[in-house]
Amino acid sequence: MSHGRSTRLIVALDTKDTAQAVSWREQVAGPAGMVKLGLEFTYACGLDAVRRAAGGSPLFLDLKLHDIPNTVASAIGSLAALRPAMLTIHASGGRAMIAAARKAVDETFPADARPLLLAVTVLTSMDETALHETGVEGSVEAQVLRLGALAMDSGADGLVCSSHEIAPLRAALGDRPVLVVPGIRPAGSALGDQKRVMTPAQASAAGADWIVVGRPITRADDPTAAAAAIAAELEKARS
Predict the structure, then answer these.
(1) Which of 213, 194, 215 shows the shortest CA–CA distance to 122?
(2) Where in the sequence numbering do the catalytic residues fall?
(3) In the prediction, which pLDDT does 1 show?
């Protein structure tokens, strides 16, 4: 059953090469609603290169900030010049950290240019065994719901979650969170290091607002066509 929202595509530009990132962005800017740059690129190339790689495309800056509240707030201030459309923090940083991030976003960015503050619940590379090894004895879904509720209650705009937690989060928290979902693989793609995956159409039907796709697009022979095919799948899922 469709959730009635338009699910849009974010293309992950995972590389250490600025020219490569710019090339990919130029190829996918039409079909993609946003591009993602994360730790790999930012650490290798720096913030000026992040600005160049994003170009005029909306930017999902996925740095998953996780530190004491004051440090996270200060870091957000340092990122303000990039004008990202989305920023990520770890929900496991706790209520005070999330609230400090919210305050920093509200005070640092102009009202018409505030990024969506997204809290990462449980990394999509983690399954139940991996979660238990960290000392969390419940299920992945229970931990996602716990952290998701905490994050939204503490000022987050939305959540980054696995496709398999979309429906439980919608059931628990309704339409309020913006749900951004990595670990999306078109039918027939290799799983890579993702353990909890869905196709674009499945994620859209479950209630994702945005899906993140990287290698199946950027490593395709024709990234433009690969991105356009996923965008078309999302459009078909809406109808």
Answers:
(1) 194
(2) 64
(3) 37
